[in-house]
Design a protein that fits this description.
The structure holds two protein chains of two kinds. By secondary structure, chain A is mainly alpha-helical. Chain A folds into two domains: 52 residues, no CATH class; 204 residues, Orthogonal Bundle (MetI-like fold). Chain A is 71% helix and 0% strand. By secondary structure, chain B is α+β, with helices and mostly antiparallel strands. Chain B has two domains: 226 residues, P-loop containing nucleotide triphosphate hydrolases (Rossmann fold, 3-Layer(aba) Sandwich), CATH 3.40.50.300; 141 residues, Nucleic acid-binding proteins (OB fold (Dihydrolipoamide Acetyltransferase, E2P)). Helix content of chain B is 26%, strand content 30%. In chain B, α2 crosses α3 and α2 packs parallel to α4. Chain B is elongated. Classes of the chains: A mainly alpha, B alpha+beta. The interface between A and B is medium-sized, with 25 and 33 residues.
Chain lengths: 296, 399
């Protein structure tokens, strides 16, 4: 036993391979250590940004993890410029609309792919995969030209359209995996119980696919919320600029000052909706919701 | 309630295979009919066509005198119980049972009354607010039944509803299904691959094989007068013994010795040519320990002596197994063996004779015993077509 303690495993994988000769308590300790390492790795940058956002302009470059002097100036400052508030509104609006549309369309498409046999099904799946793999940067210039030509440059619609396009493959793939999990007999049962196909879909299939729908919604929302490429290329004013773009456009107090504090504060604010979104839907993402449908 | 008529119904799959081949069944109002056969015989396809879950390629389906071919399942007014129960996991038992009524836009008070009543019949009252996930198999099964009966549909369709239950519960539920059907007097089509279920539950049994109806009749009729080798081998447990034989004048030459053909048998057989190879079928209970047979009765059968291979005493009876050299072979018997899984067992029941002797029999393992066969109960089959030569009944053509 002593030898295992000395060769302290750094990863969960190594920890579990040693697990064979360990007691239950030791195993738990190793797992806790491994979890902690992963957690620290993920959280330190976030905490660092959080710390930066509370630092005063003087101490911002001092390299201390914990701010010596606390201030809320950075937060106050970003709201003084009306630009950021407008951008936040744009971000929320565009991301929410894109998410709802992508999930609704994706749900129907995924259902068709999982359950129906129709000509061109393979082509559809192939094309949606193709879109997901397509380098988005190569589309920026053509879209810029097209959108200016048809007059949707620098509008919400001009961002919602490409967002839906690139979120749909993700939505379709995630959702069709969930739909395949739902026993087909449930749908047959609904039909026998007198449901129209739409009723069966709405009152049996969708509630059961809810965890999948919410998971997809979160993924799509994060994708739209985080986008920078389309947002900076296809917008020009506060009419449709999103928060990510607004942050990039921050200027310091003077020409020579870096707006590090403001950027940190804005970045912290940007993560809040994501955290809220995930926490809100987390309860709905319960694995094994379909247990009990068919024989146990 | 209504009668169901399948009129020359075919199911053709895109690849050309026939799921149902000219199926003709007339199911009377209130009748309990069983579709039985090995897996892939077309019984579930037939049921799904009645339900409307599968299209009918050709022929007509009538429920209550009306053509149903083009109607959606929801417009046929029939309820179905699935093998997997197919309960909606996100709904409570009450909601599950109320679902068909809600879809039919029945008012709330009425829904409540009907669900409560069905729950009472099925002994589910105390479980109404539970979710299916927290229930046992038997309870889930009853909920599935409940969902079917609340609507008082024209007919019930049941697709192997008991096959997911363990053996003991299955027997209990079998009785429950039987009582329920008698009480509701609703036309019921029940699919199973279990011949015991078929024998015990149904008013009539439809035996199917590769999409073709082999025989329709009451359980006893099918047992006593199987139309062909397939039905004979499928119905009855333990299964009928099949022996190759040669018919010469009035005698059947078999591995058990010469069996005299009885008067009745001779009459029916005389129509066919005199000397030929046949397969003889003898049910296990038509054997008896020769020492227990009265002299007066003994001449009605034949006696042979054989060494006991295995003896299973059931208390009420003794199952005695003998080895025989030759084993009857035919496509139908091979299919039955494959379905029962006996084809995979080393030795299997190849060359085995199963007899059911009285408990008073003195048979011992490894010792010889005189066994009497009731030759008046023999069934003789044509080895090529599988047709039963002993019954005059015209069987549906086999492929």
């Amino acid at each position: 036993m002593a030898t295992t303690v000395e060769s302290r495993p750094a990863t969960p994988a190594r920890g579990s391979s040693k697990g064979a000769g360990m007691s239950e308590g030791q195993k738990k300790t190793w797992w806790a250590v491994a979890d902690l390492v992963v957690l620290l790795y993920a959280l330190v940058p976030v905490l660092w940004i959080l710390s930066l956002s509370f630092k005063t302009t003087d101490t911002i470059t001092d390299g201390n993890f914990f701010p010596r002097s606390w201030t809320l100036d950075n937060y106050a400052q970003i709201f003084q410029i009306g630009l950021f508030t407008a951008a936040l509104r744009n971000s929320i609006g565009i991301a929410l609309i894109s998410t709802v549309l992508a999930v609704v369309i994706g749900t129907m498409a995924a259902y068709a792919i999982a359950r129906l046999d129709f000509p061109g099904k393979k082509a559809l799946v192939g094309v949606s995969l193709l879109i997901a793999m397509f380098p988005q940067i190569s589309l920026v210039s053509p879209l810029f030209d097209i959108f200016r030509g048809i007059g949707i440059f620098d509008t919400w619609l001009g961002l919602i359209l490409p967002y839906i396009t690139f979120a749909l493959p993700l939505a379709i793939y995630t959702l069709s995996a969930f739909f395949r999990e739902i026993p087909w007999e449930l749908e047959k049962a609904a039909k026998m119980d007198g449901a129209t196909p739409l009723q069966a879909f709405r009152s049996v299939i969708v509630p059961l696919a809810a965890p999948g729908v919410f998971t997809t919604a979160i993924l799509v929302f994060i994708f739209c919320w985080n986008d920078f490429l389309f947002a900076i290329s296809l917008t020009s004013t506060s009419r449709s600029q999103t928060a990510t773009v607004a942050i990039a456009n921050f200027t310091g107090a003077s020409q020579f000052a870096e707006p590090t504090g403001s950027i940190a504060a804005a970045a912290v604010l940007l993560t809040i909706p994501i955290i809220v979104f995930v926490l809100f839907f987390q309860r709905r993402i319960v694995a094994g919701l379909t247990s009990g449908a068919v024989k146990g | 309630m209504a009668d169901i008529v399948l009129d020359h119904v075919y199911k053709r799959y895109p690849d050309g295979t026939l799921g149902a081949d000219d199926v003709n069944i007339e199911i009377a109002d209130g009748e309990f009919i069983i579709l039985v056969g090995p897996s892939g015989c077309g019984k579930s396809t037939t049921l799904n066509m009645i339900a409307g879950l599968e299209d009918i390629s050709d022929g007509e389906l009538r429920i209550g005198g009306q053509r149903m071919n083009e109607r959606a399942p929801k417009d046929r007014d029939i309820a179905m119980v699935f093998q997997s129960y197919a309960l909606y996991p996100h709904m409570t038992v009450r909601e599950n049972m109320a679902f068909p009524l809600k879809l039919a836009k029945v008012d709330k008070v009425e829904i409540d009354r009907k669900v409560t009543e069905a729950a009472k019949i099925l002994d589910l009252t105390q479980h109404l607010d539970r979710k299916p996930a927290n229930m046992s198999g038997g309870q889930r099964q009853r909920v599935a039944m409940g969902r079917a009966i609340v609507r008082s549909p024209k007919a019930f369709l049941m697709d192997e509803p008991l096959s997911n239950l363990d053996a003991k519960l299955r027997v209990q539920m079998r009785t429950m299904v039987s009582k329920l059907q008698q009480r509701l007097e609703t036309t019921t089509v029940y699919v199973t691959h279990d011949q015991t279920e078929a024998m015990t539950l149904g008013d009539r049994i439809v035996v199917m094989r590769s999409g073709v109806v082999q025989q329709i009749g009451s359980p006893q009729h099918l047992y006593d007068n199987p139309a062909n080798l397939f039905v004979a081998g499928f119905i009855g447990s333990p299964a009928m013994n099949f022996l190759p034989a040669r018919l010469e004048n009035d005698t059947l030459r078999t591995a058990l010795g010469d069996l005299a053909v009885g008067d009745q048998l001779r009459q029916t057989l005389s129509a066919s040519q005199a000397e030929r190879d046949v397969i003889v079928g003898i049910r296990p209970e038509h054997f008896e320990d020769a020492s227990l047979i009265d002299e007066g009765v003994r001449h009605q059968g034949s006696t042979f002596t054989a060494q006991v291979d295995v003896l299973e005493s059931m208390g009420s009876d003794k199952f005695v197994y003998f080895s025989v050299e030759e084993q009857a072979t035919s496509d139908e018997l091979a299919e039955l063996a494959a379905d029962a899984g006996t084809a995979d067992v080393p030795g299997g029941d190849a060359g085995q004779l199963v007899t059911r002797l009285s408990a008073a029999s003195s048979a011992r393992e490894g010792q010889s015993v005189d066994v009497w066969v009731d030759t008046s109960k023999l069934q003789v089959f044509d080895p090529k077509t599988g047709k039963n030569l002993t019954t005059s009944e015209a069987a549906p053509a086999t492929v």
